[in-house]
Fold each of these.
Amino acid sequence: MDIRDRYLPPSLRRRQILALAEVNGFVRVTALAHRFGISEVTVRLDLDALANEGHLIRIHGGALPAGDRRAEERTFERASAEAPEEKAAIGLEAAGLVKSSQIVMLDAGSTTNAVSRALVEKTDVDDVLVVTNALPIAVELELCFPRITVLMTGGTLRPNQHSLVNPFGDLLFGEVRADIAIVGCNGVTAEHGVTNMKMPEAEMKRAMLRAASRKILVADSTKIGTVSNTRIADIGDFDLLITTKLADAAEVARLRAGGLNVLQV
C-alpha cells in the first residue's frame, strides 16, 4: 500500500476503485481495504455509492463494473467461441477420467460440451451412461450410441443455454448415483469458492454434485480468480479442478493452499 492512499478523499478513492474494477473486471472488499488502508465497512460504503451511481454492480464480496460482460449471461454459442483451444484441452483431460461402465454427469456449458466432444473420440470406453441437462451434449453423444447412452434430466428449457433446469429439472438426481460429475462454472476463487452467473444453472450443478461420488470442476483460465453472482459450492467440495497453464498463478496457488487439487493442462 502506498502511504498516500490512506489519506485519499472519498471522491478520489472511489474513482480509483472504479478504475481498478474496469481494469481487473472485479474488485474484492478485502483487497480494497488492504489497498487503501481503510476498513471493510468503508469499502462497502464506497462500493454501494458507486453502485447507486450506476458505475458498479454489487455482488457478494465485491463488485463488477457496470456493463461488464460477466454481469450479463452469454449465450451458449458466444461462450463456446471464447478460449476454444483451452476448453478443448480441458475437455480431453476430463474425458480421460471416464472409464467403461461408469455413470457420468455432465452439466450444461461450453467447457463441459468440450468434454462431451472428447468423449466422442474416446473409443476405448464402453457401456457408459451420461446424465445431462444439456441439449448440445445429448446431440454430441448421440453419435456414440450404444457405446455411450444419454439420459436427459427433463425439466424446464432455458433457450440461451439450451439447458434443462427447475422446476422438475433435478428430480432424476434422487434416483441415480453417479461415479463422477463433471461441472463447469463462471468463476472460482479460494476466497469465494465456485460461483455461477444464474441461479437455475447453479441449482442443477449442486444437484449433480450431491449425486456423484467423484466431483470434477472444469474451468478455463478466464474463470480463475473471477467471482460470479451465485454460489455453487466451496472449493473443498471438489476432488479436482482442471484448468490450463494460462490461469492466474497467484490464484492457483491460493486454491492449492486451500486444499483443492489443481491440474493445469
Amino acid sequence: MSKPRVLHLGAPIKYNPTIYTRISQKFDIIQPQPSELPREEFKRALKERRWGDFDAVFRPFWNTGGEMGNWDEELIGLLPGSVRVMASAGAGYDWVDVKGLAKRGIIYCNGAAASSDSVSDMALFLILSVFRNLRWSHSAAHSANPVSFLDAHKNSPLSAYNPRSRTLGIIGLGQIGYQIALKAHNAFGMKILYHDILRKSPEMEGSIEAVFYDTLDKMLGESDCVIVATPFAGETLMTEGRFRAFKRGSRFVNVARGSLVDEEALVKVLDEGVLSAAGLDVHASEPNVHPRLAGHPRVMMMSHNAGGTVDTHVGFERLAMENVEAFLETGKALTPVNAHLVEKQIRSVL
C-alpha cells in the first residue's frame, strides 16, 4: 500500500529534524522548488498535476512557503481531490479561506498554540505601555534631548496608572486570549472581562475570575483597557461606533490583525480623548503603518513581532508537522481551525 503524500511548502526544516525524519519515513514528502511557488507558476503546477495526488499540505515557517499569496477560491479549486489537511505556521489565518477549504472537506490547522506565550508576553508589554505612558518616556529618552527627557520625567507620571485592579476586556478568549488573561490577572492583578462567540467553561472562567459578556459593546463600556485577540473574520470589528462605546479615557491594544481596526477612527477617538492611549503590534496595511498613528504621542507601535521569537518558530515548525502526522494517522488534527465547518459540510451532504 502506497504511503500518504505530503506537500512541503517553503524552506527546509531547521529546528525539529527528528520529527521530520520520522514523518519522512511514514509519508512521501514532496518539496516544490522556490521557483515553483510564485502564484502563477504554482497554479500552473497544480493544473499540470506536477506533483500528482497528495493528501496533505504543510508550511512550517511564516517567512517562506507563502509566495503564492492568499489561498482563495481560485487556488483551493486547483487542489487535487485527495487533499484532506493543511497545516501552517502562524496564529492568524486571514490569508486562507478556511470556509472554502471546509467546502472541499479539508481541515485547516494553525499554530496559535505555539505562539501563545510570545504573543501574551508582548500583550502585557503593550498593556503596561498604555497604562504607564511608555511611548512618551521611550521617545523622550531616545531623542537624546535633555528638555524632552526632563519633560517626560516630570510630567508623564501625572497621567500614568498601575494596571492593578483595573479591568481588562478581552475580545476572543482562545488560546492566546486565555494566556493574556492568565498573565494579566496573576502578574498585574487585573480584573478580567471577556467577549467571545461561545462562553467558556466554568473551570476556565474560574481560573482567571473572568466575567463573560454576550454583548461586546457592554463589555467595552466597562473596561479600562480592551485588547483584541480574535482572528480576522472578513470584516472590520473595531469601527468608530465601537470605539465610541468605550469608557471615556480607556485604552486599546491590538495583537490580532490590523484589518480588524478602522485606523482612521482610532486616530479620531485618540485625538478626541475618547481613548487615552493605544498599543499596536499589527497594522491594516502592513508593512506600511498609518502615519498619524506612528507619530501620535500616545500610541506605542511594534512591527508585528508579538509572536516573533525563536521559541515560536520552533513550535510552529513542530506543530505544522505534527498536525499532518496526527490527522493522517488518526483522522484528528491537533489544532484544527475549521473542523466544525467540515463536519457541517459532511452533514449537509449526507
Amino acid sequence: MPIALFTRPVTAVSRTRLEPDARRRQIVEAARTLYAERAYDDVSLAELARAAGVTRGLLHHYFGSKREIFLAVMRDSTLMPETELPDLLHLTLSERVRVTMDWILDAAQTYGQAWVAASGAAELHGESDLQVVVDEADDRAARLVLDAVGLPDSPVLRARLRASAAYVKALCREWLQRGTLTRDDVLDLLTTHLVHVLEGS
C-alpha cells in the first residue's frame, strides 16, 4: 500500500492580479472603512492588510508605511466632489453660498467621518505631513467656493475662507459624529457665516 505523503489536500490560495492603480485603490478603500470607525493608532498594519485582502509586504510595496496609507486616505477624503454645480450667477450671494454649502455638505455626508477627523488628527500631531494634507485641502476648498459663488480668486478672500475651515469641520463634527446639530442647522450657520466673510471684502 502506498504511503500517503500528505494527510490533507493542499489548496492553492488564489489572488486576483490587479493593475497597480486598482490595487492602490483597493487598499485605500479598505483603509478608509477602518479609519472611519477607529482612530489611526487603533488600526494595525496586519488589520489593514487583512481588510484589503493583501499581504503586509504588498502594503509596504505600494505605500511604504502605515502612515502613508493613512495620508492617502486623508487626501482622498478631503477632495471636493467631482460633479459640477449649475450656473449660480443669477442668484444673490446668499443664495449662491447656500447652494454651494449644500453641495459641500453632500460630500461631507459621504466621506464625513474621515474628513472631519483629519483636522483633529492634524492638531494632535502639530506641524506634520498630515497638516500639509489638511492645509492643501482647505486651500482647494477655498478656491472651489470662490469659483462656485462667482467671486475673484483673491489672496484675501482665500485666506478668509481657509480660516473658516476649522469652523466648517467643527460644525460637521457636531452633526456627523455627535448628533447635536442637524444638517439644516449646519447649512444655516455656514451660509450666514460665509456670507459675512465674503461680503467683508
